[in-house]
Amino acid sequence: MATLDAAVVELPGVGKALADKLASLGVERIADLVLHLPLRYEDRSRLQRVVMLRHNATAQLALRVLDADTRPGPRRQLRVQCEDAEGQALLLRFFHFRNTQTSGFRPGAGVRVFGTARATPAGWEMVHPEYRLFPALDAVRAEGVLAPVYPLTAGITQARIRTLVDKALSCAASDPRWAESPSALAAPSTLEALQCLHQPRNADEAAAMEAGQHPAQRRLAKEELLAHQLSLRMVKQRARQYRAPAIEGVRQARLVLAERLGFALTGAQERVIDEIGKDLASAQPMVRLVQGDVGSGKTVVAAAAMLAAARAGWQSAMMAPTELLAEQHARTLADWLAPLGVNVVLLTGRQSKAERSDSQSRLAGGQVQVAVGTHALFQSDTAFHALGLVVVDEQHRFGVRQRLALRDKAAPDCRPHQLVMTATPIPRTLAQTAYADLDLSVIDELPPGRTPVVTAAVSNTRREAVVERLREALAHGRQAYWVCTLIEDSEQLAAQAAEEAAELLQASLPAVRIGLAHGRMKANEKQAVMRAFKAGELQVLVATTVIEVGVDVPNASIMVIENAERLGLSQLHQLRGRVGRGHTESQCLLMYQPPLGEATRERLDVMRRTHSGFDIAEKDLALRGPGELLGRRQTGVVGLKVADPVRDADLLPEMITLAEALLANDAEQAMIHRLVARWVGDVQRYGQV
Ligand code: ADP
Ligand code: MG
């Protein structure tokens, strides 16, 4: 049987294609499957009837197949007409299916389905439900289990991932060394606790886990926090072994740059630039996180650091998560820095080969001082003359791996300084856990003269009024975003919802130029749409929550968010940050599906009243209580799998003490390495940051 450190392809039934899909979920080793934890559990012990369905809620039903047919065309689909025992109709729709699947739905057969119910003008439907066929309706039985619900990616079903996790768990049982942990952590064992999370024995256990209160979960949370504390300390120890270029003159660079700008720097920008200046002047590699709300002006801060590096004879590389953002940054930076004698190049996958190799040779020859780009920056054929500073924008989109690849482009005995910029507001309590290895600078002030975005919650029964308001704003030459939220664990459904919203909107506003962007489009198609919106060729952009972070479209002053009640406060705030960037007053309309629960009403109310990302993050934490989904990656800042830095904050002091004791004990080193490898990943690589 394969060991847990083996790649997932070692598992029977996993080929290259599936392994690639799993990789996008962060699952590369068999161990990652064991640690791929459920978001929640579904009670499959009851069968519902159509009259009990609620829009957008999941349900399990027993149905009789009436008819099945396939519709050809670009959106080929399999449609299965069904009814329940009371003769109430429900339509099943599949976009990806095999022909054998079609013939299985013979009229008269029974079928048990589990999926998200949707009320459409034509009646109830489910898209891509899980299903099982039975000889007849009478024979349909409930599944009778608590089914774990895992985070998914396109092309992998719940059933598939459950089978894989089961296989991985049996591998774990035969690889006891993998699960080794310090004796100071009391029972249950690591493996017992993991098994319990994947397969709770009863509804009470599942409820305790969803509330984050189950002992198995707390046990794993401790272990995970310990592993992170250990790895952060190890990283710090090792970083001291390397040298970095000592770059002086950041303060002067700030003054010179300020002359070039059409505005005065805020006090917070000045302070953060000077904090960076202190780090750069030292010959130890800087790893500093700059955290600033959307629109707080992080780009200028990075520009000052890059200007100083250039004047000291060092090159800088700035990584952006998308091509559009890279283009935007390259233009801004060239605007500010070129007159000061700093040459800026862009490196993206979209450029022609000739363009790129021209940029590359100027970079390798040292004729340019700043390179802005996407993944193209860290491809093996990109070489730097003297890389001294790496800036990573909107850090959460990049893995550690890419950061390491870029860092490796410096001279072998020297590490570049690293500046990581993020708009994800992290309450201080979280930052302590998440970024103990990084020095943190906070831009806690917005440039003057911004008008807050007027925010309102609107029931989706008033959709027509919303469309009316949109029509009016568009008539005044403004642009708007229309955001469709991701329906849980289905990119397919989210994409479909966006397509439908765009069609609906186009029908009400026939003369308006509407564009569509969602996660199932090819990256270059999506970027083309974003570009057209930015250029003003499109008036409305209908999108899923994939809307690019950081993209600046000052003329866009209205945002409508459908089913806003489904999103966390921080995510709503990030989205809202796309508007309110120009001079006109902006509006954000949070459409919700009534009735609203008390907690949801309160959350939408916070959005109405609060405009600072930090305040919102604090309120968010205060509002999150028991009953929170156990796997919700609300903060999106740390790779924590079980521990919730807020919920489990009380565990931290004890784990810090334990980490220090373990590090001081030579006999524990092998176990420490296994522990860190299990939760954090490849220690050798991390250890070099
Ligand atoms: P973010 O922190 O979201 O990356 P940006 O760096 O894109 O923000 O800045 C947002 C906008 O504010 C840009 O148009 C930028 O030129 C402008 N800006 C930055 N700093 C200031 C300032 N001190 N005063 C006025 N405008 C500023
Ligand atoms: Mg930005």
How would you characterize the overall build of this protein?
A hairpin with a 5-residue loop joins strand 2 (58-71) and strand 3 (77-83). The protein is 38% helix and 18% strand. Among the domains are: 46-143, OB fold (Dihydrolipoamide Acetyltransferase, E2P), CATH 2.40.50.140; 250-443, Rossmann fold (3-Layer(aba) Sandwich); 453-610, Rossmann fold (3-Layer(aba) Sandwich). By secondary structure, the chain is an alpha/beta fold. Strands 11-12-10-13-14-9-15 form a seven-stranded parallel β-sheet, with helices on both faces. Strands 16-21-20-17-19-18 form a six-stranded parallel β-sheet, sandwiched between helices. A five-stranded mixed beta barrel has the order 2-3-4-6-5. It binds adenosine-5'-diphosphate and magnesium ion.
Q: How big is the Rg?
A: 27 Å
The CATH homologous superfamily of the domain at 250-443 is termed: P-loop containing nucleotide triphosphate hydrolases
Measured distance between first and last alpha carbons: 34 Å
DSSP summary, beta strand count: 21
What form results from the Cα inertia axes? globular
Poorly predicted segments: 625-638, 683-689
What CATH architecture label of the domain at 250-443 applies?
3-Layer(aba) Sandwich
* Residues in β-strands, percent: 15-25%
- Count of helices? 23
Strand order of the largest sheet: 11-12-10-13-14-9-15
CATH topology grouping of the domain at 250-443: Rossmann fold
Helix proportion range: 25-40%
The CATH class of the domain at 250-443, by name, is: Alpha Beta
